[in-house]
Amino acid sequence: NRLILNKHKEGALQANRLILNKHKEGALQANRLILNKRKEGALQANRLILNKRKEGALQANRLILNKHKEGALQANRLILNKPKEGALQANCLILNKHKEGALQ
């Protein structure tokens, strides 16, 4: 009887141990999956934030460059217009002088 009872008890304990180990492994795997998911989610979120910052920085750069380009173009236009204006004024003076001379 004792032998039979001990065998049963040992068998039952081993079965219990196996079941507990299975549960523990399952729980650990589930934890690992959850942690990995969170890590992936966090990494994705980070990537999105970094990309947004990069895009924002690129847009800011583009705006600054465009402003500079516009400013440079305007400055160029003024410089180009100035000689033209100066030339026109000089022409008017010359024409007026000729006209006056001719009238006289």
What can you see in these coordinates?
- The protein is mainly alpha-helical and 104 residues long.
- The protein is built from one helix and no strands.
- The longest helix is centred in the middle third of the chain and has 102 residues, at 2-103.
- It starts with a helix and ends with a helix.
- The mean pLDDT is 89.
- What is the tally of helical segments? 1
Q: Tell me the Rg in angstroms.
A: 44 Å
Low-pLDDT stretches: none
Helical residue percent band: over 70%
Strand content: under 5%
Number of strands: 0
Alpha-carbon distance between the two ends: 151 Å
Secondary-structure element sequence?
H
Overall geometry comes to rod-shaped
Structural class based on helices, strands and sheet pairing:
mainly alpha
Sketch the major β-sheet.
none
Whole-number average pLDDT?
Answer: 89
Oligomer: single chain
Structure summary:
With 104 residues, this protein is mainly α. Helix content is 98%, strand content 0%.
Write the layout of secondary structure elements.
Elements: H1 2-103
Keywords:
104 residues; mainly alpha; 1 helix; 98% helix
